[in-house]
Write a structure and sequence with these properties.
The protein is mainly alpha-helical. It contains 16 helices and three strands. The chain has two domains: 135 residues, DNA polymerase, domain 1 (Orthogonal Bundle), CATH 1.10.150.130; 179 residues, Intergrase catalytic core (hpI Integrase, Chain A, Orthogonal Bundle), CATH 1.10.443.10. Helix content is 52%, strand content 5%. The protein has a three-stranded antiparallel β-sheet with strand order 1-2-3, with no helix packed on it.
C-alpha cells in the first residue's frame, strides 16, 4: 500500500504522512496520504507527480477506508495488540474474512511507515484472525460466471435501442476478452486496432499491469450469430462515437453522454440484462463476464495455458479456481452409482 511503498527508502516521506495524520482536529478519512506527500514543499512538482501515480486509486481508497473504519470503531495509531484483536472480534461475521485480512494489512503498513511496533504480528492478533477463519471459513465469495449458453440467452432478450446496442457490445467484449470491469470502462476508441481476424484491444493499464507496460487482447470474429466485433461496430455506428470512451451512459431518451461508464454500472448492466432474460440475477456482477469466459473455455476443453493467455491471470492458482468449478461434474463418481 501507499505508505510502505513510498517510505521504504525515504524517511522524509514517512514524516510527511504522519505529521499530517497527527494534525489536530483532522480525521484520517479526510486525508489522502499520497496527495499530502505529492504536495509537500520538500519535494519538487515533478517528483510529486510521480508520487501521486505510484499506487492505484483503488489501493489508496482501500487503505484509507480501512484506517478510517478502525478509528471509527475506537482504534488509533499506534494500536495495541489487544485493540486490534478486539476490532477483529467486533467485525467477525459482519465483514468477510478477506476484508478483515486486508484491514490487518493496512494497519500493518501504517505502523511500518511510522516505525512503530507492529501489533498485527503479535501472537494475540494472529490467533484471533485464525479463530475467525476457523469459525466463519475463509472461502472468498466469487462472482457467478455468466456461461456461454446463458450469455446467448441474455443477448437474445435484447432489443434495438441505443442502450441495447451498448449493452450487447459490452457483454460480448467483456466475455470474449475476459475483461475486468475497470478495463471495460477504460477502453477508448484509440485502443481498438482493426485486423483481418477481428480486433486487438490495447490495454494501457490493468490490475496485473499497474506499471502500464501494456497488454494486447485479441477479439476474433465469431462464428455464431452473436459476434463481439460486429456488436462493437453496431454500437459505434448508433452512438456516433468517433473518439474517447467507448462505453458511456445512455439516458432514457437514447441520448449518449460524453463521459465513460462507472465500474459499478457494469455490474448493474449485467444483473439487469440477466434478469430481463428471465434468469435469477443473484450472484452475478461485473466480474461474471470474465469468470464466464474462463469457466466456459475450461468446460469446452480449452487448455489452461490458452485460457490464461486470454484472462492474463497472474498465476495458475488463480485460474485453477475456475477450472475446478467447470470440472465438478466431469466423471463424478456419484453419477455412476445413482
Amino acid at each position: 500500500m501507499s505508505a510502505e511503498l513510498l517510505t521504504r527508502d525515504n524517511p522524509l516521506l514517512s514524516e510527511v504522512i504522519w505529521a499530517a495524520y497527527e494534525a489536530p482536529n483532522t480525521a484520517w478519512g479526510q486525508l489522502n496520504c499520497v496527495q499530502l506527500i505529492a504536495h509537500s514543499a520538500e519535494i519538487s512538482q515533478e517528483a510529486g507527480f510521480f508520487v501521486q501515480n505510484s499506487v492505484s486509486e483503488n489501493s489508496r481508497r482501500a487503505y484509507e477506508s480501512d484506517l478510517r473504519e478502525f478509528e471509527r470503531g475506537g482504534g488509533s495509531i499506534p494500536a495495541s495488540p489487544e485493540t486490534v484483536a478486539e476490532h477483529l472480534a467486533q467485525n467477525a461475521g459482519r465483514l468477510s474474512v478477506a476484508t478483515l485480512v486486508r484491514r490487518l494489512a493496512s494497519l500493518s503498513k501504517a505502523h511500518q511507515a511510522r516505525r512503530l511496533p507492529n501489533p498485527t504480528r503479535s501472537a494475540l492478533v494472529r490467533a484471533t484472525i485464525r479463530g475467525i477463519k476457523r469459525t466463519y471459513g475463509c472461502a472468498q465469495r466469487q462472482a457467478k460466471p455468466l456461461l456461454r449458453d446463458e450469455l446467448i440467452q441474455v443477448l437474445d432478450a435484447t432489443g434495438d435501442k441505443p442502450k441495447d446496442h451498448r449493452d450487447r457490445a459490452l457483454l460480448l467484449l467483456g466475455f470474449a476478452g475476459a475483461l475486468r470491469r475497470s478495463e471495460l470502462v477504460a477502453l477508448h476508441l484509440a485502443d481498438v486496432e482493426r485486423v483481418r481476424q477481428g480486433v486487438i484491444l490495447h490495454l494501457l493499464r490493468s490490475k496485473c499491469d499497474q506499471e502500464a507496460r501494456g497488454q494486447k487482447i485479441a477479439i476474433p470474429f465469431a462464428r455464431g450469430r452473436w459476434c463481439p466485433v460486429v456488436a462493437l461496430d453496431a454500437w459505434l455506428t448508433v452512438s456516433e462515437i468517433s473518439e474517447g470512451p467507448i462505453f458511456r451512459p445512455v439516458d432514457r431518451h437514447g441520448r449518449v453522454h460524453g463521459h465513460r461508464l462507472s465500474t459499478e454500472a457494469v455490474g448493474e448492466i449485467v444483473r439487469q440484462r440477466v434478469m430481463a432474460a428471465g434468469l435469477d440475477p443473484s450472484g452475478y456482477s461485473g466480474h461474471s463476464l470474465r469468470a464466464g469466459l474462463a469457466t466456459s473455455a475450461a468446460q469446452a476443453g480449452v487448455p489452461a495455458w490458452r485460457i490464461r493467455a486470454q484472462t492474463r491471470h497472474a498465476s495458475e492458482a488463480m485460474l485453477a479456481r475456475y477450472i475446478r468449478i467447470s470440472e465438478l461434474f466431469v466423471e463424478n463418481p456419484a453419477s455412476a452409482l445413482l
